[in-house]
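ARCHIVE CARD
Drawer: 12
Card no.: 0347
Subject: one protein chain, sequence and derived structure
Cross-reference: see card 0346
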Amino acid sequence: MREGSLEAPTRHPLDWKNPDFFNETKLFDELERTFDICHGCRRCFNLCNAFPLLFDVIDESDTMELDSVDKKVYWDVVDNCYLCDMCFMSKCPYVPPHEWDLDFPHLMLRAKAVKFKKDDVKQRDKLITSTDKIGKLASIPIVVNVVNAANKNNTVRKLLDSTLGIHPDAIIPAYHTETARKQFAKQNHGGLATEACGETTGKVAIFTTCYGNYNRPDLVNDLVDVLEHNEIAVTMASQESCCGMPKLELGDLEEVERLKDNNIPQLIKLINEGWDIIAPVPSCVLMFKQELPLMFPDDADVAKVRDAMFDPFEYLMLRHKASLLKTEFKDELGTVSYQVACHLRVQNIGLKTKELLELIPNTSVKAIERCSGHDGTYAIKSEFHDISMKIAKPVINRVKKAEADVFSSDCPMAADHIASGLKDGANVKNPISLLKQAYGL
């Protein structure tokens, strides 16, 4: 038996259609096996709160081993995992093909699915992961003004804390009546003589994502401007549902399948017409690149979408490789302090955002490969917000120390979360918006 592994990690499909997947006895057998191995290793102590929580309760137990830990604590560990995947990707020496075959995130996902199947989840968690419904309601004219004002009101935020468990200091993004999709429909697009190269067709369909559509239409607009400046034709799907990542993290796998069934046919139609797919939020890209293919390994259409899905900077750098990216920049950016989102790192594409931004004259990008602790929903929950800020603290400290001209992260939610910890009016911009600025658009 080897101690550790030097092979590249391989991921097994998620066997969630197997009835044993939801067998709680078998789940706890695997939790115990995995936790015992983690206890003997402890390389992941500085990632999320799941690991230090586990290690602390073991160290404080009677035997200082897992055998004297109350099994109820297992669920606390599960609740503190937000499926960033970094333990699997960068820390664990026992992932497949190692014979111990550890996949901690997928085990946590299985536990979350068992918990959801038992209906042992809060109504709050069901609500905040229903991003389509919230976005459609909150973006209704007049309603949007009430929602945005309420989210900034201290009294309302204290009420949300006491009734729903939404932390009063957590950043809740504004909603917009003029969504990204509505704005795009009113604009004139098309007519570009696109050129294919390598993996790219030069024609991009944007999957706006719930966040991009309802909360950050400016980000989607900036992406459109950058793509069209580089003579890339842009369109959007005729309809779009949530990518499914929030429901995946909740453990509602059947809802993930329903959302997949809504999105995949729309995206396949576009791909068959010669369009590549880009989403502006790393988690949504990862959902189509990794999570859905692992959940539906025999679905050819899911695999086809996976192969046509790109991160924005991954796509632009592929174009640059073929000398099709415009590099005539009008504005320099100076020093950029850049947090690399976990769900971008998991895509294994390298630091494409950093590489592209450093093509801009007199621009230096200082990458911070540490988690923000946000996770979309984890950081807004009352019981986890302070922990999430603690996880973000190393990033916050490095941003402060860098004294950069601007702070940026590919994940807009992570950027806002980290910026809230800076508390000094930091200059925060998404990398796509920085690129647009550099082009002088």
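Annotation on reverse: The mean pLDDT is 93. The two ends are 58 Å apart (CA to CA).
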